[in-house]
Request: fold
Amino acid sequence: MKQTQVIRVVSVKIAALAAVWCFACAAHGGTYSFSSGSLSQEIPDDDPSGVAYDISFTAAGLEITDVSVTFSITGGQNGDLYAYLSHGSSGTLVLLNRVGAANGTSGSTLYNYGYSGAGFNNITLSDSGSGNIHNYGGASLNSLPSIGGTYKPDGEDVNPLDAPVSFTAAGGSDTFASKFGGSNPYGDWTLFFSDISGGSVSTLTSWTFEITAVPEPANVALGFFGVLLAGGAIVRRRLNR
Reply:
């Protein structure tokens, strides 16, 4: 009877220890933020080589659940800009691709090379956005996105140098989740901006890149198994006393 009571008490301690370990694992997840601070970086006009920012993510054993990019740009023409986010073997997500460029009949409001409005004021691209950034202004060619607005990324994997007929007015179907969801964020990321049409200069004034991640299931399972092994050793020691 006494032995049964000991096993029951020790089992409760093991379960409690496992719960504490799992909570500690979850604490290693969360949102990781990378920011440029204040910038005054001109995006070279009519130059596909653009400007790139390399971001090193050093935390290991994590799995991506969400990604977002926030940025501000002044001047230029929004329809001239092309931007993407890439990560190793996970791939590349197009953030901006000649926003407003659309197919249609030549001479109509649907056949154009992109919005002529200048600037993105504190715009966030996220899968939770209210609409695709590619057509934020509908057919109003000189419109601007809402200040501080949240939009879905462009996601249109079309060569930005192609004619408007190659673009879809509603933007593409690629998302942060489809490109990066469930992958390990460890390693180098690249945030890229370029201006692929001449006329006026855009200036990047800030950017913020955020990753939300949780511990990889395999690591949680291994840790839990380790806790059980350690708990089993405790039980054996108690019984051998």
About this structure: The chain has two domains: 2-25+220-239, 29-214. Residues 65 and 213 are 5 Å apart (CA to CA).
